Amino acid sequence: MTEGLIAGIVVFVLATFIGFEVINKIPPTLHTPLMSGSNAISGISLVGALLVAGNGHWSLSVALGLIAVILATINVVGGFLVTDRMLQMFKKKDANA
Known about the structure:
Catalytic activity: NAD(+) + NADPH + H(+)(in) = NADH + NADP(+) + H(+)(out)
Pfam family, one: PNTB_4TM
Keywords: Cell inner membrane, Cell membrane, Membrane, NAD, NADP, Translocase, Transmembrane, Transmembrane helix
EC number: 7.1.1.1
GO molecular function, one term: NADP binding
Order of helices and strands: HHH
Number of helices: 3
């Protein structure tokens, strides 16, 4: 069991480092299209978090699942708000207004 925990931590740390490096290299003009893709990924993680949190018996995994549901929901809603705001910038202004 300890080997599995250590392997999971190593994968988490490597994924965090690689994700940070990849995101740092992206020019700002591509952030909005990538945010749309990350919203889809966050939606998938939200469904997984709901499955974990919906166990019914309170345990550490259910508490962590509940926290994951809250954070993924904030991420999805915030991502859609930012994407909508960016898309509003490209709409034509009404000349009569």
